[in-house]
Design goal:
It is a single chain. The protein is of the alpha/beta class. It folds into 2 domains: 103 residues, K homology (KH) domain (GMP Synthetase, Chain A, domain 3, 2-Layer Sandwich), CATH 3.30.300.20; 98 residues, 2-Layer Sandwich (Ribosomal protein S3 C-terminal domain). Belongs to the universal ribosomal protein uS3 family. It comes from Candidatus Berkelbacteria bacterium RIFOXYA2_FULL_43_10. One of its GO terms (molecular function) is mRNA binding. InterPro entries: KH_dom, KH_dom-like_a/b, KH_dom_type_2, KH_sf_prok-type, Ribosomal_S3_C_sf, Ribosomal_uS3, Ribosomal_uS3_bac-typ, Ribosomal_uS3_C.
């Protein structure tokens, strides 16, 4: 049962941080729901930008949205039109002023969220799943990861019975909290149903 816990939640304040960086005594639940809706909407709108993370900060009158992507140019658009569109999209749903910051992910091959999305995209394009996960693993290994595990589950290659397959390189010390292990998920919408993708990447010693 030790591996059932979320690798992100159990490492909060060690190698992971909160995604909503604010506190409120009033309307707390409403703001949490609003954060979830903002992240869900942006994830759908910006799917082609390969998002690594979205964090949200709030003060009295402003919502600050930090978007981390391996393709920031796709989000910003020509002359900043893309980021302005995002800003107006959120402001129309919220009563607060919105500020959008966009950051580039320098090493996407060792970012588990981006790796998972890349594998899912290939599965949607009907790439053989074994080739897709092996290529992703090799790229992460070459980029400097000390350990990589990629798992896919569902009706792989259109099989009648759903199953789970995984590949691994190096070690993934999930029980050692002083190790920096990143975790990401994605899902591929195929003609045979949804295929889930999970990625664990071990980067070395975490913060003490």
């Amino acid at each position: 049962m030790g591996q059932k816990v979320s690798p992100k939640a159990i490492r909060l304040k060690m190698s992971e941080s909160w995604k909503s960086l604010w506190f409120s005594d009033k309307k707390y639940s409403d703001q949490v729901v609003e954060d979830i809706k903002i992240k869900s909407r942006l994830s759908k709108e910006l799917k082609s930008a390969f998002l690594s993370d979205i964090t949200i900060d709030r003060d009295a009158n402003t919502i600050t949205i930090n978007i981390f992507s391996s393709r920031p140019g796709v989000i910003i658009g020509r002359g900043g039109s893309g980021s302005e569109k995002i800003k107006k999209l959120i402001e129309n749903k919220s009563r607060s002023r919105v500020k959008v910051n966009i950051f580039e992910v320098k090493k996407p091959d060792i970012d588990p969220e981006i790796v998972a999305q890349s594998v899912a995209l290939q599965l949607e394009k009907r790439f053989p799943f074994r080739r897709a996960i092996k290529q992703a693993l090799e790229k992460s290994r070459d980029a400097g990861a000390k350990g990589v595990r990629i798992q896919v589950a569902g009706r792989l290659n259109g099989a009648d019975i759903a199953r789970r397959e995984k590949v691994q390189f190096g070690t993934i010390p999930l029980s050692s909290f002083d190790k920096e292990i990143k975790y990401g998920t994605a899902h591929a919408l195929t003609t045979y149903g949804i295929i889930g993708v999970k990625v664990w990447i071990y980067l070395g010693e975490g913060r003490k």
